[in-house]
Design goal:
Helix content of chain B: under 10%
Strand content of chain A: 25-35%
Number of strands of chain B: 6
Number of helices of chain B: 1
Largest sheet of chain B: 4 strands, antiparallel
Strand content of chain B: 35-45%
CATH class of the largest domain in chain A: Alpha Beta
Order of helices and strands of chain A: EEEHEEEHEEHHEEEH
CATH topology of chain B: Folate-binding fold
Number of helices of chain A: 5
Strand order of the largest sheet of chain B: 3-4-5-6
CATH architecture of the largest domain in chain A: 2-Layer Sandwich
Radius of gyration of chain B: 15 Å
Distance between the termini of chain A: 40 Å
Number of strands of chain A: 11
Oligomer: heterodimer
CATH topology of the largest domain in chain A: Gyrase A, domain 2
Order of helices and strands of chain B: EEEHEEE
Largest sheet of chain A: 6 strands, antiparallel
Distance between the termini of chain B: 25 Å
CATH class of chain B: Alpha Beta
Chain lengths: ~190, ~90
């Protein structure tokens, strides 16, 4: 696997608001519409991919985000080395892709994960997102795919006033600059 | 600007979607037997109604799924949303 230098590599704090890029985190995209897929994932990771829209399921090590009725994103809750990441990817690939149960794609270098913490994160996001955060912020574990400053993002509410934002690598620097610029005026 | 109720994700702003034009256009079964005019009719000619129109939409910045929308083009009021392959809930 290619080991890119991440684009952001930074952590900033504006009063109550803390922004930091988190890496190395494993991210794997799963696609399947087969019936046995869920139980297979359950056996491998001891966590079942959520069926309900805009939700996620987590255990100690991993979170699975619902992206679409037949698409999920797995990411590790803690930093893990590239060697471990490759092992897990291989395990999933052999059990799912090779048995024709779905597709496993390693998107570790495709998404950049930024952690946002603080009471003003929703003020910050609402500055340039068409999404209504009313229900999102109430429900722990909710997931939203939307636009932020014209850039596609995936948001995962991990706790009160604490969320993970995934942005595509090529847009990450631009979004990071925009987030920092906007955070100054909160 | 209007809100579209995506059948998979729920209510979202129109900016997250992209329009895919008129829905329920059936591809001719034997394209080789058509004249150029008939083929062009299928390929390019679309209605441009003022009023209720059946359209395809894609939630391109969300779940990336296609679905159908019944929309009044004169006031952007959405009368129904239904998944691909389903029959329109209102008469066409």
């Amino acid at each position: 696997m290619l080991n890119f230098e991440t684009t952001v590599q930074d952590s900033k704090s504006y009063g109550d608001l803390t922004l930091s890029e988190v890496e190395p985190i494993l991210k794997i995209n799963l696609r399947s519409n087969k019936r046995e897929f869920s139980t297979k994932i359950g056996k491998l990771l001891s966590i079942i991919p959520p069926i309900e829209a805009n939700t996620s399921s987590s255990n100690e090590d991993y979170s699975i985000l619902w992206l679409s009725p037949d698409e999920w994103l797995i990411y590790s809750n803690n930093k893990i080395s590239y060697e471990q990441q490759n092992l897990l990817e291989e395990n999933l690939f052999n059990n799912i892709s090779n048995t024709n149960q779905g597709s496993v794609t390693n998107v570790t270098d495709h998404w950049v994960m930024i952690n946002l913490k603080g009471s003003k994160i929703y003020d910050l996001l609402s500055k340039s997102s068409p999404y209504d955060f009313k229900n999102f912020k109430m429900k722990k574990g909710s997931v939203a795919q939307t636009l932020l400053n014209h850039t596609d993002v995936i948001l995962h509410n991990i706790d009160d006033n604490n969320l993970n934002l995934f942005v595509r690598r090529s847009f990450s620097e631009d979004l990071w600059l925009w987030i920092n610029d906007s955070a100054r005026f909160l | 600007m209007f809100i579209i109720n995506c059948p998979y994700c729920g209510e979202r702003d129109q900016t997250e979607f992209s329009s895919g034009g008129e829905a329920h256009i059936v591809r001719p079964k034997q394209p080789t037997e058509l004249s150029d005019d008939e083929w062009a009719e299928f390929l390019f000619m679309r209605k441009n109604i003022k009023g209720i129109q059946f359209e395809r939409w894609n939630h391109s910045h969300g779940c990336r799924k296609w679905f159908n929308v019944v929309r009044d083009t004169s006031n952007d009021k959405i009368h129904a949303v239904y998944k691909m392959g389903e029959k329109p809930p209102v008469n066409k």
